[in-house]
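Lecture 7 notes: from sequence to structure.

We start with a single chain of 220 residues. Read the sequence below before looking at the structure.
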Amino acid sequence: MRKSIAFAGLGLAAALVLSGCSTTAEAEAPMEEAAVIDTVNSDGAGLRAQLTALLADHVYLAGAAIDQALQDGGDLTTPQVQAAVAALDENSVEVAALVGSAYPDAEQPFLDSWRSHIPFFVNYTLGKATGDEALAEQAVADLGAYAVSFGQLINSVVPELPAEAVQAELEMHAETLLAAIDANIAGDPAYFDLLKEAASHMPMTAQALAGGIAANLGIQ
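Now the structure, written as tokens:
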């Protein structure tokens, strides 16, 4: 959204009045209009705000689902776990829909890709909770590979976003959420602060994604 505010020449007119000078033809010249970008209500700002909210929700909903799974002894079929997983998947659909509002053809590939990384966190949790280090290590490797493929997917849609930069954002997401999971499994009260830290990284991810999309679409 753009707003135009006529202000050019006001400083000169004010200076003439304050100095006691009479108005001259120069001061009476038509004022020029200058375009001012509304960085609060612009399309780009709206996209960034929505992405920030949805990605932060992703972290907390993932944390809630994993916590419930731990409380239920790793049983992923209980009604409580299923409800938590459903809420997390609804968030995935919302993130994909937001991307799809800008790139309709990319909505389903994005959703398929985004959904695919969530089970890796579940596998890591189950591996750590049961002492199956091989399962946990494979989950970490899977998350690393996912960061690479997700970066490539986003770059194929938004060339302004380097694949390596997107990859780095996903690696940070995984690193911070895995730290929170470790604390939860250990019964460490630091879990809550670590989960908050994982969520606090999401605004940076949202800013990077929204910035690339805005540049690609030519919006402010």
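The helical segments are 10-18, 43-71, 79-102, 107-130, 133-157, 163-186, 190-200, 202-217. Keep this in mind for problem set 3.
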